[in-house]
Q: What sequence folds into this?
């Protein structure tokens, strides 16, 4: 897969384990408190070697994990965590380092992932599940054109407590693509 150029600043690309693991770990370590609040796995990655192991394992997985680069530096990740082929659906996950939040990076990255997904996979629906209390993530998903379909009470366990979870949906028929290209 060629990198996906979003704009002059951003691209999405497959991970290069050797070069991306240290950079992504540094982003994660600097942002651990914020990220781990909503994504408990963040507390379990405590070294660049563990990040490298995760990246290698993701290549074996049935999803699509992409590195978000801003000015050619890894700043986070966005992924189709899993594809539900029979239903023609996928579920998305993402995280971004604190140093680059507030610049629309995740919004643009999520839109680009959706555009790539609808163009290259037999998808009709893309889902994102977000804790109701995660204000920033809910704003990203809403801004990317997703519609809130349901709130699942006490569906998400975070740090030993259950939280309500928003299930956001973007359907292919409702998607309004931006101009995103693959670099060849």
A:
């Amino acid at each position: 897969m060629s990198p996906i150029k979003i704009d002059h600043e951003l691209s999405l690309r497959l991970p290069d384990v050797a070069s991306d693991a240290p950079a992504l770990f540094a982003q994660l370590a600097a942002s651990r408190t914020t990220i781990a609040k909503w994504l408990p796995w963040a507390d379990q990655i405590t070294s660049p070697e563990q990040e490298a192991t995760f990246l290698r394992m993701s290549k074996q997985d049935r999803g699509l994990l992409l590195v978000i680069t801003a000015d050619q530096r890894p700043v986070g990740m966005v992924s189709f965590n899993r594809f539900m082929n029979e239903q023609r659906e996928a579920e998305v996950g993402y995280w971004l380092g604190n140093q680059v939040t507030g610049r629309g990076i995740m919004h643009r990255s999520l839109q680009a992932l959706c555009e790539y997904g609808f163009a290259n996979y037999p998808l009709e629906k893309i889902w994102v599940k977000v804790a109701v209390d995660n204000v920033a993530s809910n704003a990203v998903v809403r801004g990317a054109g997703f519609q809130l379909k349901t709130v699942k009470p006490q569906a998400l366990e975070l740090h030993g407590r259950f939280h309500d979870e928003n299930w956001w949906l973007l359907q292919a028929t409702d998607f309004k693509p931006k101009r995103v290209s693959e670099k060849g």
Remarks:
- The chain has one domain: 4-182.
- Helices lie at 17-38, 48-60, 105-120, 135-143.
